[in-house]
Fold each of these.
Amino acid sequence: MSRSARTIAIAGLGVLALAACTSNTPEAENNNNAAPQGVSAGKNDEPGKKVKIGFSAPAADHGWMGAITKATQAEAKKYSDVELLVAEGTNDPNQQISQVETFINQKVDAIVLLPFDGPALTAVATKAMEAGITVVNVDREFNSPAAARTTILGDNYGMGVSAGTYVCSQLKDKKDSIVAEIAGIDSLGLTQDRSKGFKDALADCGLKVSNRVAAAFTVESGEKEAANLLQAAPKIDAIWNHDDDQGVGVMAAIKNSNRKEFFVVGGAGSANVMRDIKSGTSLVKATVIYPSTQGADGIRLARLLVQKKALGDLVEVEVPREIQLYAPVVTKDNVDQYLPTAFES
Amino acid sequence: MTPSTPPAPAGRESGAVLTESALLTMTGIVKEFPGVRALDGVDLDVRAGEVHCLLGQNGAGKSTLIRVLTGAHQPDAGTIRINGDEVQLNTPTAAIQRGIAAIYQELDLVPGLSVAENIFLGHEPARFGFSRRHEAAARAREILRGLGHGEIPVRREVGSLPAAGQQVVSMARALSRDARLIVMDEPSAVLDPEEVANLFRVIRGLTAQGVAVVYISHRLEEIREIGDRVTVLKDGATVATGLDARETPTKELIRLMTGRSIEYVFPPRAEILTTAPVVLEVTDLSRPGEFAGISFSVRAGEILGFAGLVGSGRSEVLETVYGARKPATGSVRVDGTALRPGWVQSAVKAGVGLAPEERKSQALLLDEAVYKNITVSSMQRFASGGFLNNHAERAAAVQLAESLDVRPPGVDQPVRNLSGGNQQKVVLARWLLRDCRVLLLDEPTRGVDVGARSEIYALVRKLAASGVAIVLVSSEVEEVLGLADRVVVLREGRAVHTGPAQEIDEHQVLDLVMEGSSV
Amino acid sequence: MSEAPSDTTASTQATVAPPTAQRAGGLLSTGAGRNLGLVLALVVLCIVGVATSGDTFATGPNVLTILRAAATIGVVSIGMTFVITGGGIDLSVGAMVALSSVWATTLATQQLATDYHWIFMVSTALLVGGACGLVNGLLIAYGKIVPFIATLAMLAAARGLAEIISDRRTQIVNNRSFVDLFGGSLIGVPTLVWIFVLVAAAGWVVLNRTTFGRRTFAVGGNTEAARLAGIKVQRHTVALYVLAGLCCGIAAVMLMARTTTGSSTHGQLYELDAIAAVVIGGTLLSGGRGTIVGTVFGVLIFTTLNNVFTLNNLSFSAQSVAKGVIIVIAVLLQQRLARRTTSS
């Protein structure tokens, strides 16, 4: 599992980034650990040269994507030296490409890009890089390293591993347990990664996915697919649902079926689900975080890159090529730690 | 000719209807459409509780008169009084409020709604916006019982009722609005004899309650049975009113309907050589429910006329010859070659052209230029490799339009702007351009004003003289007799008479189509 | 009436017969007048663009950006113009784009392209689009299924098939010469824009200068009259949908070049964008009246609107609202003009 190894290596960075996010105001953070050659994190927040950043993301047609955009805009407002241009969210690659082209024409300093489809936006992102614009790729990866200076990724594989490990810990004594999975949009690489991680982690404790359906990250698709799943499997021990937004529909379907013999693990980490976990009365016992602050981190990194500053707390003077965020499991025990940064779906 | 002997309806008191005060009085009604004076001084008075029959040939103005009466058209001149008060019927709603309702041949019911819902459509019993379905059902039942049809279930979908039942629902709807005058446009056309008897029972029930009925029908025997008085329309004007429905002789009624104030000028007939080749030959053509066993042939230069009522199958025969309808049996040959049945392109290829009855909906591209309408059937001639040669196309159209004297001149204006007669010339020009062998003309002068008719007649005759075989269908007997060389009289889908046009007169034809007796 | 005949009308009328005042007014309201309205709308948008962000808006690269974005949906809209003018509608264009792009980027097709020539990818896209259109046309003309339903079925089926073929993964185009040619430029103008210009020009010629175009107007304006005039209405209807499918195939090629991918998610909601562009261009939804120039303006107006909103950092929903308002105004205007021509 070379991928896991990398995950662990980067996990530290992820925690750092998360810590940075949880701090409310830049001024509040005053870190004195000056790196030998780099610039201190505190100094990073001081206003520097004006940075014009273009941001483009898919249509905010579900909670997580809406949260991404909101967090991004909120983050940009914190900096007096950042001017953020936000393009209309779109699921049409053709239109998203022209948005990036427009940013190039506007001569922005950096572009934070969450592509609807990574490979489809690779060519235009490369064009932006060639035009001297710093491109920060968020969440969905390009298929060429030349297309972005830095890539911020959620750990999709790690999400599956975390969910699978948690399920294993709960069902370790029963090798014949029925585990079900409600995935997101199957055509996306991130869904495939999540499912693979889940499968691999379950295999480690001798379990497997008995029933799998794919929804579309929306409430109604979640309801529909969960209802199908509950029909198909008369007895279930655990369900992992990839996305808490579609989870609203999933929980509705479970409620309608009056079934209580299993527990549910969520994904992405919406505030709703965390409150349910905290209450302890819900079938949802845990969720795996997929940070909705990736875009916000993208703004921070883009600003640092343009202003030629280093990432605080690293010895290295350059911002890393890739930052993968950690996918922790939230349970009743640690939910208070994560609730403040959770997104409202 | 057989004098009709009307059966004396049982239990009918002729005295009961004689409320002498007029419920409705229309005086000097005039209605003009571009190029046509559809109504030219119509007088009509209808008394409460009577059945007033309206007679007239197609195009005499009956439909327009009904539309004026029901508020669909506004008259250009004339007055309408109801119970002596002058009224303006500007909208259908205004007419309904005055107690006037109409039952059309194509019933205007919503098939998917229930009987009760249809009866109260537009004025549902409701409280606070919630419809009171029980009250509606109860009231519907009551009205239907009053019509003698309490057996019709009020919750049934109207679409599932037979035609007669739907007609009763239409009447119930009129009554639900407290109609005092109901216009019925050929109500018996869709009914079988038993249902007609039923209908008459309902009508008598209505008149007994003081409701007046304006009854339109082509069947003289019906008029004699149900009618009280008759008004005859001709060329948009009243020629006789207040005739006794049972006493007036058939001959007199037909004379009134056909005797013309304007004489059309028909061009002289050409001598048809019996040696001229047969161009169109139709054998044993039939379509179940429309017509059966139709055979005829037309020689080059000959005009064959079809006379018959609406529903006699005359237009259907023509459209079947053209291939627009597929025959059940029979064949159509042009110059000896059989056409593929039900295949328009085969007819067009063989040189058959059709000027259809509904010119606007079946022949013309109203918003397109005149020249495009002329060339639409001969585009290949002006195209090479699919590209149109606009100059050649326009030039050919200009030449034809000029020779047919299409007015106003100018082939680039949309056809919509032309009058009916000039639109018809455009349709004829289309087939002239194709050099067609057979021309099928369905009601060539419908909606054409008096002046332009003679031009169309001359044009048709000229076409025949150039060797085209022509089949003419017209609801105007005079036109068929004046223009055609030979005449076929159709009644209920069968040819009841075939012979030279000069050997039969208008009265005989009308007698044939209406009574079905032989000459 | 289309823009071209009215133009020739205006010039020939003067020589053939002196136009009456009323007729001249009628013409203005049908052809040139409506295009004038579109030109005006575009000019207003451009003025807004220059006023709010002139330093970027009025530059060459930005104009090319607008044109590149317009090209793909523009080609789809040209096909849609034919279908709607002919009295139909095609809801499956987006799905056909997706299916064509997926089929043309399968491993097998790409292998052919690598071994021989990229022309295999292009012809696969065109064939798939044309075949889908053929199915649409046959169902509508001979199966007597109303166009709305037939193409709705195709919308679902084609996208589903695209998902099956691609296994819902994005397929990357490996052929460099394909991407370089179609994604590149010719004499400073992007190839995509050239393609759009060519398709639009060809569409204009076909609609206004050929028997095919004339028949399209006839079939859409009065199907019964066209049939009785001897036009092969069914065959023509099939041809119209095949044409729309071919345009989708071309659009798929363009999208493959622009995104360097084929995907079952391509072309989402293109049917609505195309119908909107066609309708505000002045083509009657009920058929019989169609204009290629109007459609091109319709596409440009929506794309420019997009661009102006992006430049001004006006995000999200405001733009959709503006789109909706434009559609309503255009259709209202169209109805009033139609009423005026019928009453005259």
Note: DSSP finds twelve helices and twelve strands in chain A.
Amino acid sequence: MIRILRSVVDDMIAHARSLVPVESCGYIAGTSTQMTRYIVMTNVDNSPDHFSFDPKEQFQAVKSVRSTGETLQVVVHSHPVTPARLSAEDIRLFNDPQMIYLIVSLKEEPPIYNSFRVFKPEPGIVDIQPVVIQVVE
Amino acid sequence: MEITINGDKTTVDGVNISVSDLLKIRNVDMPDMVSVEVNGTILERSEFDSTQVGDGDQVEFLYFMGGGR
């Protein structure tokens, strides 16, 4: 389970809505107890059905949160018209076992968001574990 | 030698080591999916074998992030 501040949820949904029909993406930074900050990242694909982070921006984000004592713990992206589930492309490209992957779906109102961990213990084997989200004020 | 990796000072055997070998030591299973920065410069993946890091260098690496619906 992860605890996410309500303001973080509001920020990631607002970001997703602001870019429709393009997919949004970002990081959530936090401490050992809760997720405290949404960090907007540029979708360099600028696409309605794909996203990629800019590596230069990624390095900047990592260093930025390191200086505050937080860590980047969640990778967020939106699905403007599809459900909040991992797509085949997501599973293929999600390779960091340390990260939680959160998808915001704008297919329905209010938006639905789900999160997962993706483990690939050996080639051809994928272990997807849902992560419960607790929103805190 | 002492290299700073992702903000942490780390002792690594030897005088120099390639970025590819450093990723192996760090148990990075899919180096093709990793971006590496050495002393503030982002490397091309084709440079991982030829780029050597040594004492005092600062190395950052992270996974490429992308996906699609």
Note: The two ends of chain B are 44 Å apart (CA to CA).
